[in-house]
Amino acid sequence: MSASKRVAVVGVGTMGSQAAWRLAARGAEVVGYDRYAPGHDRSAAGGETRIFRSAHFEDSRYVPLLKHADALWEELQRETGRELRSLTGCLLMGPTEHQQMATVLKSIADHGLDHEVLDAESLAKRFPQFRIEDGDAAVLDRHAGFIRPELTVQSAARRAEQLGARIHRYTPVREIVPVAGGVEIRTDAGTESFDTAVVTVGPWVNDLLPDLPWDVDIRRLINAWYVPTTDTWFGQERPAFIRTAPTHCYGLPSPDGVSVKLGLSRALHRPAGDPNQLDRTVQPEELEIFTDLIGRYMPDLNPDPTRLSVYMEGYTESSRPLVGPLPGAENVVLLAGFSGHGFKLSPAFGDIAADLALDGTSPQPIDFISTLDRTEA
Ligand SMILES: Cc1cc2nc3c(=O)[nH]c(=O)nc-3n(C[C@H](O)[C@H](O)[C@H](O)COP(=O)(O)OP(=O)(O)OC[C@H]3O[C@@H](n4cnc5c(N)ncnc54)[C@H](O)[C@@H]3O)c2cc1C
Questions:
Q1: Which atom of ligand 1 is nearest the CA belonging to 338?
Q2: Which residue ranges does the record assign to the FAD dependent oxidoreductase domain (predicted)?
Q3: One domain, residues 175 and 190
Q4: Are 209 and 239 in the same domain?
Q5: Gap from CA of 35 to ligand 1 centroid (Å)
Q6: 6 vs 321: CA distance, rounded Å
Q7: Which atom of ligand 1 is nearest to the CA of 174?
Q8: For ligand 1, atom 18: residue with the closest CA
Q9: Domain that holds residue 33
Q10: Which residues line ligand 1 (CB under 6 A)?
Q11: CA of 42 to the centre of ligand 1 (A)
Q12: Would 74 be classed as within a structural domain?
């Protein structure tokens, strides 16, 4: 490994802040650039909470990466002295025969994950705030809970700076130019030269890299916050929760104990359009689906939202992110298309970015998300 490499991190958001921390921790000379400042809410991070879970329902190949992320979450908390993650559990509810439930049960069995399977009677007794339907199962992933996204991005960026990284705030990168043996980063302030660049610009990926050979579909995601009608709604355990079908949705109790945040899956969100012109106004008709879900599954929430926020996220066709060298530019490492499930894994992706930028390869099992030999459109 060449620890003295000069590495640019383009986009110091969820993945970029972690990459800057991991690179600086290994002694690289790190320069970060962000169009805003670490911890802002105009992109994929924000809204106070993100779910952390060990039982991955998208694909059990993520479980080893989750274990790596888990260790790094602990390390980042130790190094910063901040509580970035609270392990309050995550309750997964949905039809027993649904593919996501089957993947979760497989993840649990294959990797010996800490969990409980609840029947309808025990669910009603222990978590009376939720209703389930005939044929539903409920699984409580115990090594799960919520992450504080704004605090995490700021803490990782700050830790990187303490370790020597420099971060240029309010400095959008206009162009990344591969040159012999390195890469040039162009901003309105001028051009800087690096050995390698890590590109983590989230929803701006098509904007900055218009010739990307894969589709990254940028969606506009709504989060809505609701207040319970009873003081007992939250109970003692306060798990995050996910309903797999017929409408995939998720929720998290707010850390302040006042409200519950609800969100929906990819298919229920419209394209974001130009990321610089994101429509942050939520129309009343966009709330109908939330009202319907509350009526069916969480009838003790008041269906009048107390807060609405809009974010963006990039989705690949397979929902697997793109991690690895940019085609035709071996000194540019791309991390993009986290498809609604990247936050929990972000310290692992930051570490993998550092592996790839410094060593050209990673010991982590990333073949299934690699940009190398990627065939999907
Ligand atoms: C509403 C919502 C809920 C989610 N819930 C969960 C969850 O519960 N659990 C989970 O694991 N994941 C969740 N996700 C997914 C997760 O948040 C994302 O996968 C992750 O935040 C993506 O990180 P990123 O680094 O790619 O993008 P971002 O965090 O958006 O970072 C991109 C950064 O690049 C900067 N930038 C852009 N263009 C430039 C440029 N030209 N020059 C310099 N800087 C630039 C931006 O300002 C930004 O800071 C959710 C996402 C959303 C939107």
A1: 19
A2: 6-356
A3: yes
A4: no
A5: 13
A6: 25
A7: 41
A8: 342
A9: 6-49+149-213+318-369
A10: 10-16, 33-36, 43-45, 47, 50-51, 172-173, 200-204, 208, 221, 223, 263, 311, 313, 338, 340-344
A11: 9
A12: no
Give the pLDDT score at 328. 92
Lowest-pLDDT range of 2-11, 170-179, 217-226, 329-338: 2-11
Q: Mark which of 277, 293, 315 sits at the end of a domain.
A: 315
- Provide the residue type at 287 as one letter: L
How many domains would you assign to the chain? 2
Nearest atom in ligand 1 to 240's CA: 8
Contact partners, residue 272, CB within 8 Å, separation at least 6: 203, 218, 219, 220, 278, 312
AA identity, residue 364: Q
Same domain? For 238 and 111 the reply is: yes
Q: Are 164 and 29 within 8 A, CB to CB?
A: yes
Query: How many of the other CB atoms lie within 10 Å of CB of 235?
Result: 12
**What per-residue confidence (pLDDT) applies to 100?**
85
pLDDT given at position 56: 80
Q: Is residue 64 part of a domain?
A: no
Ligand 1 geometric centre to CA of 44 (Å) = 3
pLDDT by residue (tens digit) across 298-328?
Answer: 999 999 999 999 999 999 999 999 999 999 9
Angle at 345 between CA 341 and CA 348, to 5 degrees: 150
Query: How much distance in Å is there from the Cα of 131 to the middle of ligand 1?
Result: 32
Residue 144, φ and ψ in degrees, nearest 5 = -155, 175
Residues 18 and 106 grouped into a single domain: no
Report the alpha-carbon distance of residue 98 to residue 40 in Å, rounded: 36
pLDDT at 245 > cutoff 50 = yes
Q: Would you state the pLDDT for residue 137? A: 84
CA distance 55 to 116: 12
Atom of ligand 1 nearest to the CA of 172: 42
Domain boundary among 300, 315, 330: 315
3-class DSSP state for residue 183? Answer: strand
Contact 194, 30 (CB under 8 A): no
- Report the residue among 9, 15, 188 best suited for mutation to probe ligand 1: largest number of ligand atoms under 8 A from its CB: 15
Q: Do both 130 and 226 map to the same domain?
A: yes
Nearest alpha carbon, ligand 1 atom 26: 202
